[in-house]
């Protein structure tokens, strides 16, 4: 078979030490639904990169193949401090690959699994970096469509004011179109169901506001340890995204200032028209609500919160010291 190559037998350990398109594979750093990511050495420039290899069975699938090729072009087109830079993409011996900056650290999925819910200051600092990357993509007419903790890489920052540097990756599902549905031509849903916006589910046109929704789901999980909706099966979860009210953040984090509930409710609104216009508008409002500082415009009022169905609640309670732990302990993966 032409695509069953000696480069990729399906067992990752078989590739360690091998050379692919001028990169020497050093070790596996992670795998997702359609690819395996390795740390590798670019032998031409003698630098470490992250090398993403498409699973061979997917390389034979035209839909996945196109999406993978598209990812590299889209990501390479945006130059932003919080978007992982793409160095090269191509195909060798039937294997599709993409070489990008190796981000030493861990993704937000691992971080949450290890640390549990984060302090509000840490959560908003991470969210602001992701939001700026997303808004930059939206300014290019691109919608990420797969914002989730596994696509948010957290590296060590420069100083105590910037304890971590966050990168958004995986633009494989980004489409330079405002009218594509969330389904592939083979009927598979694109992306993880925990973070998917109602309009992606129903196949309505999507724009940057679907990333606002997904980012809000990520923020909810960052602060509570759980995405807003958890159901026993996929159909129930899709239903919940479309019709159920998300639980108030303060029901799981009672020490948070009550106005954060209104901010999350607005970012998670079922209709894109009822959400924040941009990701930064959402996260800025969240930070202002959490600290009681009024941002540009105004912080959500009781009227705003009644409009989005959030009940009145007593005033803010300070976070206990236990929540104020550092997000990034400085250890590389
Ligand atoms: N540039 C990078 N530097 C370091 N590690 C990376 C890099 N890109 C991805 N990774 C790691 O590889 C893992 C797998 O990435 P991949 O995009 O294949 O899967 P995923 O995002 O978890 O799932 P999905 O396939 O649904 O997007 C990531 O979760 C991350 O830990
Ligand atoms: Mg990914």
TrEMBL record:
<keyword id="KW-0808">Transferase</keyword>
<protein>
    <recommendedName>
        <fullName>non-specific serine/threonine protein kinase</fullName>
        <ecNumber>2.7.11.1</ecNumber>
    </recommendedName>
</protein>
<keyword id="KW-0418">Kinase</keyword>
<keyword id="KW-0723">Serine/threonine-protein kinase</keyword>
<keyword id="KW-0067">ATP-binding</keyword>
<feature type="binding site">
    <location>
        <position position="52"/>
    </location>
    <ligand>
        <name>ATP</name>
    </ligand>
</feature>
<keyword id="KW-0547">Nucleotide-binding</keyword>
<dbReference type="InterPro" id="IPR000719">
    <property type="entry name" value="Prot_kinase_dom"/>
</dbReference>
<dbReference type="InterPro" id="IPR008271">
    <property type="entry name" value="Ser/Thr_kinase_AS"/>
</dbReference>
<feature type="compositionally biased region" description="Pro residues">
    <location>
        <begin position="313"/>
        <end position="323"/>
    </location>
</feature>
<feature type="region of interest" description="Disordered">
    <location>
        <begin position="313"/>
        <end position="333"/>
    </location>
</feature>
<feature type="domain" description="Protein kinase">
    <location>
        <begin position="23"/>
        <end position="287"/>
    </location>
</feature>
<dbReference type="GO" id="GO:0005524">
    <property type="term" value="F:ATP binding"/>
</dbReference>
<dbReference type="GO" id="GO:0004674">
    <property type="term" value="F:protein serine/threonine kinase activity"/>
</dbReference>
<dbReference type="InterPro" id="IPR017441">
    <property type="entry name" value="Protein_kinase_ATP_BS"/>
</dbReference>
<dbReference type="InterPro" id="IPR011009">
    <property type="entry name" value="Kinase-like_dom_sf"/>
</dbReference>
<dbReference type="Pfam" id="PF00069">
    <property type="entry name" value="Pkinase"/>
</dbReference>
